[in-house]
Amino acid sequence: MSLTKQERRQRIKYRIRKRLSGNGERPRMTVYRSNKQIYVQLVDDLTGKTLGAASSKEKEIATQKVNKIDQAKLVGKQIAKVAKEKGIDTVVFDRNGYLYHGRVKNLAEAARESGLKI
Question: What is the pTM of this model?
């Protein structure tokens, strides 16, 4: 019996999450990618709290008419800015079962360029 796309991604996600964990000074930066939007959160796994978040639905990003790759770059810059405000300079990158390619890769590279250590 073959797996659906969602089941396959879920298995990959669990395999990745076995090894990754975030804490207060080095949170986990997790990415969710839908067909139209992209979301990213900074999560402290020890307390189970979200320390910061950014998405392509935020007003300053959503008003710009750019393609999805450029939108992901803007979200990467935004999450780096949010992390700096919270005093976070290093994170653990959780690609959440997606390939490190395209929008996920551009988001991570934009966050790196903005000063976040991944």
Answer: 0.89
Q: How far apart are CA 91 and CA 30, in angstroms?
A: 10
pLDDT digits (tens, 9 = 90+) for 38-54: 999 999 988 999 999 99
CATH number, domain 5-113, options 3.40.630.30, 3.40.50.2300, 3.30.420.40, 3.30.420.100: 3.30.420.100
pLDDT in tens, 57-98: 999 999 999 999 999 999 999 999 999 999 999 999 999 989
Eight-class DSSP state of 3: P
**Distances from the Cα of 66 to the Cαs of 26, 41, 115, in angstroms?**
31, 22, 23
Burial class (CB in 10 A: 0-12, 13-18, 19+), 54: buried
Name the residue among 25, 37, 6 with its Cα closest to residue 91: 25
Check if the beta carbon of residue 87 is closer than 8 Å to that of residue 8. no
